[in-house]
Design a protein that fits this description.
Pfam families: Pkinase, SBP_bac_3. GO terms for molecular function: ATP binding; protein serine/threonine kinase activity. Keywords: ATP-binding, Kinase, Nucleotide-binding, Serine/threonine-protein kinase, Transferase. There is one protein chain. By secondary structure, this protein is of the alpha+beta class. The protein has four domains: about 30-160, Phosphorylase Kinase, domain 1 (2-Layer Sandwich), CATH 3.30.200; about 165-355 and about 370-390, Transferase(Phosphotransferase) domain 1 (Transferase(Phosphotransferase), domain 1), CATH 1.10.510; about 400-500 and about 600-645, Periplasmic binding protein-like II (D-Maltodextrin-Binding Protein, domain 2), CATH 3.40.190; about 505-600, Periplasmic binding protein-like II (D-Maltodextrin-Binding Protein, domain 2), CATH 3.40.190. About 30% of the residues lie in helices and about 15% in strands. It has 19 helices and 23 strands. The longest helix has 22 residues, at about 370-390. The chain is globular, with a radius of gyration of 29 Å. Residues about 1-55, about 140-150, about 230-240 and about 345-395 have low confidence and may be disordered.
Length: about 650
């Protein structure tokens, strides 16, 4: 969380880290990885995993924050994993190091910087910006832990504790990102950056190391150690330039022609443009052997042609215009990113309002780069135009081809039907929706360009009213253990899927039946409960006619309660649903050892939504290919199913997904 003040020769360390693909030492995070299928990132000494803390005693800040273990350490500060003993929650605590050799004026500057960092974050309060909880001035109660570890610092910032990798870690592992994934990350970062600017704050150090991810994948900005307020000078008393050279806007570098280098919102947008370029191309646009060469390249060299940016190329060019007044605005950037994240044709940023003055060529070079730059721009425009002509949905984009998305964009809300009371799949707990279907629906919403936390409304549905609500356009999507059947398709439901394949089984009171392994083993007249409009009714009547007395209820929670009350002998539905109820009553209920039918869950859409169906089918394939499906299953369902491993639908299962 420490800012970088870099002078003429201080870019060497940054460049060396980049060439070696090492993490930024100023990034703090909990050690470890977020997905078990990904390799452990290489740690430097500043972020190396510390041994687990001894039982205590621990250094304590303000009689409240127990410092448990160091997470990272740099030249200006140390970050601790701590426990807020008053609220009983883990937090991160950053202590600013005020060493004895530092003169009083420098100490005062460090204290002011820490205070400004905390105040800057606190006044923002946005989901794409790290949260600060407290700032404390004064030494810790210097109680050393049993291993001799003490706490250094006299200024402390208490923040939320994060446990993801940074964007820099992701780029180090994956080299570059697909266009639409990069657009979604950049869109979230830009939203946070716009909130920063709305609070009158300038970040001044937007870069991959300062972009982290919460659980669920939301990107957020961190490290406000060098943040300032708009219009403040960009140099320190020692005339060092503030910022990371590789991401520093040209008007802020040593070669800026202005008498004063003042940060602006456009300067932060330049840094975002460099970051976005790096995401899609796998390298930053401007390089050099040291900070001075990098700054000179940013000022004088054209943006290198992009091979992989596709529809993002014109937008990146717009962010990387040399003069701040010629860059596209934050609103233009957000509009473009939203279109690309939703797979719509991008609007190419317009030309500068006035022709930019000629910039002097780099020292020792000829002026032949101008035609090359023009050719690169034409190629970028042609690439964008080609995508416009042959992109998804025949070039119209979902905003033009999908009435569902048109309506959702107009109201600023995507309405998704889900079932309640299905542990592990979808349930409302303390006002929060949880479960596999919920998280899967959020992935779809994100890919469609909607923020799952602010632009999605989960609407409770039942097996009876799903088709009606879709037909009346009161729902945009249904993700609710919705089995794909010809009857439902005949009623006008368009399906994308399957995204989950499971089977039906039966739930009974423990010990009620012996040697029962399937429906054929139950005695004649067995009383069974299932949900209204459930496919289970047809299965029992077709395969075991007359054996069961079937009753239906509005929800399975009612069926299970009546099973426990001995009104019914069994409950029949999908094993995923019943496993959740069995987990709630492990000493009273048991399931058949195996399923006896196959159910294929699909995402329900309104009729005649072919373009939206095709897009959702693409999302399902991506989630299966990149391992997110297995991660969701492990997080939400595997424990409920007794640790049982299950496979996702295969790509062969999805061959007919677009048939609806």
């Amino acid at each position: 969380m420490h800012g970088n003040e870099t002078g003429a020769g201080s870019g060497d360390a940054e460049e060396t880290r980049r060439l070696r693909h090492e993490p930024d030492p100023d990034t703090y995070k909990l050690p470890g990885r977020t997905r078990p299928d990904q390799p452990e990132p290489v740690e430097t000494p500043t972020t190396a995993t510390q041994p687990l803390p001894p039982p205590g005693p621990y250094p304590v800040i303000a009689g409240r924050y127990q410092l448990r273990r160091q997470l990272g350490r740099g030249g200006m500060g140390v970050v601790w994993e701590a426990m807020d003993t008053r609220l009983g929650r883990p937090v991160a605590v950053k202590g600013v190091l005020l060493r004895g050799g530092i003169d009083p004026s420098t100490q005062a500057e460090l204290v002011e910087r820490a205070r400004r960092e905390a105040q800057a974050i606190a006044r923002i309060g946005h989901q794409n910006v790290i949260a600060v909880h407290d700032i404390i001035e004064g030494a810790a109660e210097m109680v050393e832990a049993e291993d001799g570890t003490g706490a250094e610092g006299e200024v402390w910032i208490v923040m939320e504790l994060l446990d993801p990798r940074s964007l820099a870690d992701i780029l180090r592992e994956e080299d570059r990102l697909p266009v639409h994934r990069a657009a979604r990350i950049a869109l979230q970062v830009l939203r946070g950056l716009r909130a920063v600017h709305a609070a009158g704050v300038l970040h001044r150090d937007v870069k991959p190391h300062n972009i982290l991810f919460r659980r669920g994948g939301r990107a957020l900005l961190m490290d406000f150690g060098i943040a300032t307020f708009e219009g403040a000078a960009q140099v320190t008393r020692s005339h060092s330039v503030i910022g990371t050279p590789r991401y520093l806007a040209p008007e802020l570098g040593h070669f800026s022609p202005g008498p004063e280098r003042r940060a602006s919102q456009a300067s932060d947008l330049w840094s975002l443009g460099v970051t976005l370029y790096e995401m899609v191309e796998g390298r930053p646009p401007f390089g050099g052997l040291d900070a001075l060469e990098i700054q000179q390249a940013a000022l004088n060299s054209p943006t290198p042609p992009m091979r992989y940016a596709g529809p993002l190329a014109p937008l990146i060019e717009g962010l990387l215009r040399k003069l701040p007044r010629h860059r596209i605005s934050a609103q233009e950037a957000e509009d473009g990113l939203r279109r690309i994240a939703r797979e719509e044709p991008p609007a190419i940023p317009g030309p500068p309002k006035e022709p930019p003055p000629e910039l002097p060529p780099p020292v020792g070079s000829r002026r032949r780069w101008a035609p090359a730059a023009a050719i690169a721009l034409v190629l970028a425009l042609l690439a964008g135009g080609g995508w416009l002509l042959w992109g998804p949905g025949g070039g119209g984009g979902l905003s033009h081809t999908s009435p569902t998305i048109q309506g959702a964009e107009t109201r600023g809300l995507l309405r998704i039907g889900v079932k309640s009371g299905q542990p592990g799949m979808s349930e409302l707990v303390d006002g929060e929706w949880r479960g596999f279907d919920i998280e899967f629906a959020k992935l779809i919403a994100t890919d469609l360009g909607f923020d799952p936390d602010t632009e999605v409304q989960f609407v409770p549905v039942s097996s009876v009213n799903r088709e009606k609500l879709l037909g009346q356009r009161q729902l945009d999507l249904v993700v609710a253990t919705y089995s794909i059947t010809p009857e439902r398709q005949a009623e006008g439901v368009t399906f994308a899927g399957p995204y989950f394949i499971t089977g039906q089984t039966m739930l009974m009171r423990q010990g009620m039946y012996e040697d029962v392994s399937g429906p054929a083993d139950f005695p004649q007249g067995t009383r069974v409960c299932t949900g209204d409009n459930s496919t289970s009714v047809g299965a029992l009547e077709q395969d075991w006619p007359g054996r069961f007395v079937v009753d239906t209820r509005s929800d399975y929670d009612t069926c299970v309660n009546l099973l426990l009350d001995r009104t019914y002998d069994a409950v029949i539905t999908d094993d995923l649903i019943l496993a959740g109820f069995q987990a709630q009553h492990p000493d009273e209920l048991e399931m058949l050892p195996r399923s006896f039918t196959t159910e294929r869950y699909g995402v329900g859409l309104q009729s005649d939504e072919g373009a939206l169906r095709d897009t959702v089918c693409g999302v399902i394939r991506d989630v299966i290919r990149d391992g997110r499906w297995q991660q969701l299953y492990q997080n939400e369902l595997q424990d409920l199913l007794g640790g049982e491993s299950r496979d996702s639908p295969s790509l062969q299962d999805l061959e007919r997904c677009e048939d609806g």
